[in-house]
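Dear colleague,

Thank you for sharing your sequence with our group. We've completed the structure prediction you requested, and as agreed, I am returning the results in plain text so they can be pasted directly into your records. Please verify that the sequence below matches your submission; if there's any discrepancy, let me know and we will rerun it promptly.
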Amino acid sequence: MLNYRMTAYILGSIAVITAGLMLVPFIMTFGYAEDYNSTTLGFGVTIAVLLAAGIPCIVKKPANMHITSSCGFITVALAWIMMSLVGALPLCISGVIPDYIDCCFEMVSGFTTTGATIMTDIDGAPQSILFWRSMTHWIGGMGILVFAVALLPKSSPAAVHLMKAEVPGPEFGKLVSKLRFTARILYCIYLALTVLEVILLVASPKMNLFDAVLHAMSTAGTGGFSNHGMSIGYYNSAYIDGVVTAFMMLFAVNFNIFYFILIGHVSAALRNEEFRTLFIIFGLATLLMTVSLTLGEIYENFWVSLRYAAFQAASMMSTTGFTTADFNAWPTLCHFIIVALMFIGGSAGSTAGGIKVSRYVIGTKSAFAGMKKAYSPRGVFTVKLDGRPVSDDLRASVGHYFVSIFIIVVVSLALILLFETEKLGLAESFSAVATCLNNVGPGLGAVGPIYNFAHLTPFTKIILSLDMLIGRLEIVPILLMFYPKSWIPVK
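Please find the predicted structure tokens below.
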């Protein structure tokens, strides 16, 4: 059941917050002396639209502020769709991207931190537009509804349902008793890591402050938008590659880990099973790709191969999508590892996409428990994560998630193969679905790192945009929109 008045109030609040955030690129249009009839008008009109729609919705608080879990999911889905549709207006009005469907694809990719792009002349785009693209990554990484909860003077009864729907992972937990303080702690950690990366990047003589801020925002949101068509490869710097590699992996870590380290529980944080598994997978993937690149003589020696392999492994596992090389030219084993890392993703409670490491840990342990049960029917086998038993409900939800992902991949792939007039090959179509559903960015072949998604049909772009939203919100919020009973008004 849907509390329409409360949903309108939340969406209105998001609209006003988004308008405030959009003031930054709007002011930049004057600072960079851009064409006032294009980018300035684009941002100005969009801000006006957001305020005109948002202010009437928040003038008076609803009498009934209670929402159900399903209402929270629907509200989150509507908020993300609204942000994408309205956030696309500056790109369309300015003429940077003339086609509105392309603009929406770009913004869905931005807010969901996917990083897939249809822009063919990124280096020649206005600075304000490039900043807005990367800013959508930063907003979408932690979640704008989490940001709204952090700004609330006191916790709303609706807050817990909104954060459950927006924070990725199999389950959601508060760091402290008050939810708004949890949101504030998360954003403080998020901001501090972003600022630290800016400082380290700008220390390189090859990167100026503007570029450092853009790439730090994209890294923080694990999105991958760059202001250069060659992505991080544009700088050809081992130092920059190293900094970005480190921060991509940091942002793929559950933010609870950082909080526990800050309060002095370092050993407990480092014993976290998902944390250790994340870096074990990253290490193995890096080693295998390094060996493959070295044996294939793609680069001059082992250490150069290690540099490129580590960067790409971090980029794919964190689902950031930055590139330093055309991995289409890498050995087939590397392609397999790259696609596998797309589906694995980062940790629950991080800004990374993918299915999440914790789901694989729970799923693998459940499979072994099932085999033991088949061998010894009278035995009792408990699945544990970090020493604590995993509930049957959580185990079931993990299984349902894997099945749902499989169905969505099959349906999306069938639709693209059926209606895509460009006739992408099976591998290219699959990688396009995989990279969008897991919020990664570049795929293989015609949607690989040196290409983009501009040549695809509008229908395919809509399917992939839906996949991006499903991947970022982890299925349920989007699917509930197609369930008629979700729209029944609350009494």
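Summary note from our side: Strands lie at 384-385, 388-389.

Kind regards,
the structure core
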